[in-house]
Amino acid sequence: MSDQQGMMPAAGAEATYFGFLRSGIWNIQQCQTCNRWIFYPREYCPHCQSPELRWRAPTGLGTVYSMSRVFARDGKGPLVLLVDLDEGVRIMGGAAEDNNEGLTIGARVSARLDNSGEESRILFVPMRGAQHEA
Ligand SMILES: [Zn+2]
Asked: pLDDT over 90 for what percent of the chain?
């Protein structure tokens, strides 16, 4: 195995994942053998080693596990969240700058795909009691 991390283009499942994101689709993998959801993208299920993985859209609903602010020189940096999706996987994402009131550890959030920048990213917004369906 060669050690060329960082310079290699994404391959396999990872490339598929980012390809979906760039076309506006947020899919993660679900194992067809044991039905567990998988993230980060892989070639084989980490639970049962099955290669039978399919791409599906998660609900995007989850609970904030941790949050931290990445401090920039001006003292204002983006919030980075780790969120436990209802599907049972933990993913990293950002917070929507215009809608992060009430965002705390343990808060219920919903995800949206943000393709406004150079890189696709997942943003989480707090769910509110009376929020109506999009
Ligand atoms: Zn499996």
From this structure: 69
